[in-house]
Amino acid sequence: xxxxxxxxxxxxxxxxxxxxxxxxxxxxxxxxxxxxxxxxxxxxxxxxxxxxxxxxxxxxxxxxxxxxxxxxxxxxxxxxxxxxxxxxxxxxxxxxxxxxxxxxxxxxxxxxxxxxxxxxxxxxxxxxxxxxxxxxxxxxxxxxxxxxxxxxxxxxxxxxxxxxxxxxxxxxxx
Length: 174
Description:
By secondary structure, the protein is an alpha+beta fold. It is about 35% helix and about 15% strand. It has one domain: Muramoyl-pentapeptide Carboxypeptidase, domain 2.
């Protein structure tokens, strides 16, 4: 069987997200739409490095320089993304359905709309439907359904790290 999660460390993810994502990816594959999980939870350094891409930043000498690789890929610093709390993943649709021979990314929006439909069926939120910064490859637990904000999770994280965040999230039905 193909390991659709081989590009990430699944042990870092909040387990209810992982279980839903596994079901989602299998359901999509069963319908002929192959997605590979390409990004999972992100620590502070990784999330902030992604945020810096494509932005002008000050180097240690105070001079400004554009971060290499040019394009902005996220509007979220650490604590402002579901990835920061291990409740968000990014997936990529594979053109040939055979990620074992190298992932062939397909950014065809209709495939991600299918992903969003299937995500809703298993209880995940898709970024394809966001209006301010649509993010078709992004999936996350629907924390807003429980009136949870990322700022809430950031405060909990500051006081107790991931164990505290997971203990808090465990109070809800996912």
